[in-house]
Amino acid sequence: MGNTKSSALSKDLLEELKSNTKYSESELCTWYQSFLKECPGGKISKQQFEGIYASFFPDADPTKYARHVFRSFDTNADGTLDFKEYIVALHLTSGGKTLQKLEWAFALYDVDGNGTISKSEILEIVRSIFNMIPAEDQKNLPEDENTPEKRAEKVWQFFGKKDNDKISEGEFIQGVMENKDILRLIQYDEPQKIKDKLKEKKQ
To answer: Could you give the CA distance from residue 145 to residue 138 in angstroms, rounded to a whole number?
Structure first.
């Protein structure tokens, strides 16, 4: 099995990723080669992941957001992402089925991993999203959501919660599916930027 890490994806992993993501076999193989070039050990550290995000957002500071994204995809909590975790991360942040995306979004906002989301956790993630919005663009945001505090408050009010209440995963998913405005408020719309960057890397 020694060569599976060195240059070729194992057949099982390739089939699994093809069925769970929208990527083709040739795309997965190309990404695996560039993944190994960047990470010869077959794993991405938190610092490397933050570096990748930093290259996507040169005009902003994505460090905190990248840290939260990393946490939400490091499913075995070993402090690294392997190729499978990395591809699933790419798939869900740049596409993915709505339900899968919302399950991931819940994991992103559930900062302490206790299965519920508090108002302070929403504020923490929204703050990290604001760090990625260039100052110029922030000036164009609507008056009632032009600060992290206002945006977090808007989300919280939508769910009809008191300050000390919690949101369960079921409530979160149902609420967002019923209101596209909330989806816009809780996510950073990065897919196109990331896709363009990946195309550059593949050429």
So the answer is: 10
Q: Residue 189's pLDDT is what?
A: 57
Predicted structure pTM score? 0.77
The phi-psi region of residue 96 (left if phi > 0; otherwise alpha if psi is between -120 and 50; otherwise beta) is left
Count CB neighbours of 91 within 10 A: 19
Query: Closest Cα to residue 186, out of 149, 147, 142, 151?
Result: 151
Burial of residue 5, with CB atoms counted within 10 A of its CB: 0-12 exposed, 13-18 middle, 19 or more buried? middle
Confirm if 111 and 124 have CB atoms less than 8 A apart.
yes
| Predicted local distance difference test score (pLDDT) of residue 34 | 83
* 193 and 133 Cβ atoms separated by less than 8 Å: no
Q: What is the pLDDT of residues 48-65, one digit of tens each?
A: 888 887 877 777 888 898
Q: In the block, which residue shows the tokens 């299965």?
A: 115
